[in-house]
Design a protein that fits this description.
two-stranded antiparallel sheet, 4 strands, 186 residues, globular
Length: 186
């Protein structure tokens, strides 16, 4: 099955969150999909982040992750997800922050510029470090529809879904369907 990265896949608002969101239905073992198990999808992620990512201009044109650094990126992805989910739930744990910082350091120690371009793993580490250092916990949220992490950059911090066009519409359509079904039953 071929997979194409779309703008919706970059709804996190930060590269580190978009990388963490590369696992679809993370907490549903029956339907969980890790998009990075497909090497072609992982390799094309850097190009898609250049086109769709909220931080696309910040790092210049990203290069794919070198084969020897893929494991580091995956460890960083998991540490990012664990740390920021704990931050959102007000269960900030120093051990998870330490894990995140160690994963960031590991990526940065092994980073290489590829043809003058920053690699995806290095840019992700920098993005995660920026989020950890400057995070405003009330701006970090979890989408109630898909479970993805995202930054709420709205002025009044009232954003509910990672992407209104996808998750917001699905939630509203589901609510409408159930409301009409209940009315028809009564």
């Amino acid at each position: 099955m071929t997979f194409t990265w779309t703008a919706h896949r970059f709804a996190g608002g930060a590269l580190a969150l978009d990388v963490a969101n590369s696992i679809v239905l993370r907490f549903d073992p029956e339907r969980r999909i890790d998009r990075f198990t497909d090497v072609a999808a992982l390799d094309s992620f850097a190009d898609a982040a250049n086109r769709f990512g909220a931080e696309s201009g910040r790092f210049g044109v990203l290069a794919p992750v070198a084969a020897e650094n893929r494991g580091r990126l995956l460890r960083l992805r998991e540490a990012t997800d664990r740390h920021f989910r704990a931050e959102i739930s007000d269960a900030g744990r120093p051990d998870l922050l330490a894990d995140l910082l160690e994963a960031i350091a590991s990526v940065l120690r092994g980073s290489k510029h590829q043809g003058g371009r920053l690699s995806l793993d290095t840019a992700t580490a920098q993005s995660a470090l920026t989020l950890a250092a400057n995070s405003e916990p009330d701006r970090l949220k979890i989408c109630p529809n898909c479970g993805w992490l995202f930054l709420d950059r709205s002025r009044n911090r009232s954003r509910t879904w990672c992407d209104m066009a996808v998750c917001g519409n699905r939630t509203k359509a589901k609510r409408h369907y159930h409301r009409n079904r209940e009315e028809a039953a009564s």
